[in-house]
Amino acid sequence: MHCPFCRHTDSRVVDSRTSEDGTVIKRRRQCPSCGKRFSTMENASLTVVKRSGASEPFSRAKVVTGVRKACQGRPVGDDDFALLAQQVEESIRAKGVAEIDAHDVGLEILGPLRRLDEVAYLRFASVYQAFESLEDFEAAISLLRLEAQRRPEDTTATVSGQRDDQ
């Protein structure tokens, strides 16, 4: 690590702390040449491998751009996009891999997007799951309907099955 003041090529770590979520390490350093102190932030890099074989750093902004296209005309706000991108990144990092295929990033987006907006999910899924016919859309819609029927609609029910307001 070069000193930002005198450009000396070495520094000594004085203190290290992790961020609250554990994804970043903040290090306090001191230059042995000029004696000045400075801070560095270190985080584990996450690389996305594209179909062409090229690699680039993971970008939440690219996740937001792709999801925003799928959500065009839907009642979804910027905060929703930011939260979804964070969930996707956390999900990928939880896998413990340093590299991930771009296609797998798209598949990781599907779960949070499904919970956010089902229409946007279908739009996005049609690309990432390579829908080829109307039957593919019908199957996805049928699955969404089936899962919606399984979700409990009435959360006021008690253990005995009686509602609290009865």
Automatic annotation (TrEMBL):
Location of the ATP-cone domain: 46-136
Superkingdom of source: Bacteria
Cofactor list: Zn(2+)
Keywords: ATP-binding, DNA-binding, Metal-binding, Nucleotide-binding, Repressor, Transcription, Transcription regulation, Zinc, Zinc-finger
Residues in unnamed zinc fingers: 3-34
InterPro entries given in the database record: ATP-cone_dom, NrdR-like_N, RNR_NrdR-like
A matching Pfam family: ATP-cone
Free-text cofactor note: Binds 1 zinc ion.
NCBIfam families with a match to the protein in the record: transcriptional regulator NrdR
Family designation: Belongs to the NrdR family.
Main function: Negatively regulates transcription of bacterial ribonucleotide reductase nrd genes and operons by binding to NrdR-boxes.
Name by which UniProt lists this protein: Transcriptional repressor NrdR
Species in which this protein is naturally found: Luteipulveratus flavus
